[in-house]
């Protein structure tokens, strides 16, 4: 009887989750149409920026901030699936697919970064090599290595998504209809669930997850240095690349929380994505929020006590300069407000409250990227780059985004959202096979006066 009950649970979960790819939420067609129009407008905006040329580097500041925003949100989201899975956490099973699906956004980020690579100045300017990490390297080393790394990150993300989806594709082969059934048959590679196939699957997921983590850190390292730090004369900061990578983890968690909220609200995932998933991610969100201040302060204290001309230049330019309101917005929305909200247990168990906190964090990250990259690209010029530091008279004035910048940002975010939504028409938002594993390994038992979940460890 227990076996029949478990079999019924597995069958119900399989059909429920596969049906989510066939039954779209209300007004989905309207949303897809609006996102498609905004995406086309964003592509037109990119074309217009390319036609205006690459000579004026300040015109590419907001574009660089947009690429950084996509890189530090969607690209970091799969880490929510990778890190807890390596730690063998059971709570993460219902949300690994949502986190992994953000890998498809890497296609948008990689392709959109191509114009920015062309806009990046070469290492040798006016027959003099500018300061960078590429000592004695060829003139276009930053361009080549970043292009290889960003496309490598995208391939690793897609490989991780595909590897973790093979059992679900096999489920579509057996339970789906129409083109989904044919797709599952061709992509599941004959998966029937033998011991050797499961071992091979776990090995591939572990390998692709490890490669993705390494590539993510490497891409953050290159982007933060080549597209920001090295463009400002006199800005020397060994902590900034790690700050950029850490804030990507913070925003990756935030965008996953937001996606989980919409999955429950519009995809009917209440029975699978529950409060424990939000509770666990809220603690990680709180930890990365505190780490934001730690890394910022670790870098700031060096400049504050160094008091050299270049140190004072960094503080005056990046913090208390014309972009002070933007910095304050980032400080409060990335650290102070989320920290003050998330310290309360009641808030960490409230799904709507966590969705609001996630939105605040994402806005704060965007403001932080605007502060860093708009300043860096506005400060750069062939006359200033070879100086020891940027003189105060050469500080850029506050630069508002142009119409093209706004269109490009909205267009790229819309295109990323569109690709994510379309991918849910192919793969279920919650992994079928991981749901089966959770049903197999968990059991509600009585403990003193309450019911708790006992979790079995298979290895």
Comma- or semicolon-separated keywords:
mainly alpha, 4 strands, two-stranded antiparallel sheet, two-stranded antiparallel ribbon, 459 residues
Regions with pLDDT < 50 over 5+ consecutive residues?
none
- How big a fraction of the residues is strand? under 5%
Give the number of domains.
Answer: 1
| SSE sequence, one letter per element | HHHHHHEEHHHHHHHHHHHEE
Helix/strand class: mainly alpha
Q: Which of globular, elongated, flat, extended, rod-shaped describes the shape?
A: globular
What is the number of helices? Answer: 17
Number of strands: 4
Percent helix: 55-70%
Distance between the termini: 27 Å
Spatial strand sequence of the major β-sheet? 1-2
Any idea what the radius of gyration is?
Answer: 24 Å
Quaternary status: single chain
Please tell me about this protein's structure:
The chain is mainly alpha-helical and 459 residues long. It has one domain (2-435). It is built from 17 helices and four strands. Strands 1-2 form a two-stranded antiparallel sheet. It has a two-stranded antiparallel sheet with strand order 3-4. Strand 1 (124-125) and strand 2 (128-129) form a beta hairpin. Helix 3 packs antiparallel against helix 6, helix 7 crosses helix 8 and helix 11 (275-306) packs across helix 13 (324-342). The radius of gyration is 24 Å and the shape is globular. The mean pLDDT is 89.
